[in-house]
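Assemble and predict.
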Amino acid sequence: QLQLQESGPGLVKPSETLSLTCTVSGGSISSSSYYWGWIRQPPGKGLEWIGSIYYSGSTYYNPSLKSRVTISVDTSKNQFSLKLSSVTAADTAVYYCARRGDSVDYWGQGTLVTVSS
Amino acid sequence: DIQMTQSPSSLSASVGDRVTITCRASQSISSYLNWYQQKPGKAPKLLIYAASSLQSGVPSRFSGSGSGTDFTLTISSLQPEDFATYYCQQSYSTLPITFGQGTRLEIK
């Protein structure tokens, strides 16, 4: 059974860079059929797609966040990572990592990241 | 971006009721439409993919229909565990993938 697990700091200061890692177990991140992505959900609000990456390193970012987002993959560790720079309070959210084909069929449990000084 | 609009935003219903949630896309997305259920404090769960295909393990009381711009999620007979928030999501355009704003289904 595929499992995804987010890890990283739960508190980030304004203007700094948010960094999260997703570890995939029970399957290979190098599967040719899927992308791996990040989705976030501000408290009490809806879902926002941040971006996704293919195992080869090809990336697709939400244009609304593109200037601040970097997603990378480490196939040797079966992990992919998110960096979001210059964060503000508006970036406070639960961040999910996920597997995407034509649908998002596997999700991590989510991790709350709070932006505050 | 392709905008996804769900209606209603919230809904009160009783156990045993038949419930329909609607999702409209701002342009045609063929059948590239998925439905998710989210319970408080949990990650979303895929219910329906490709507009009408039931994800493995999802009860058959859930069904989806539609194509082009208009889609529906129907729960034929509400069960206590179905009270949650439901989201539609289009995967026709991946730049970016977009979700509806959610429909909160509450107990009447």
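The CA atoms of residues 74 and 80 of chain A lie 6 Å apart.
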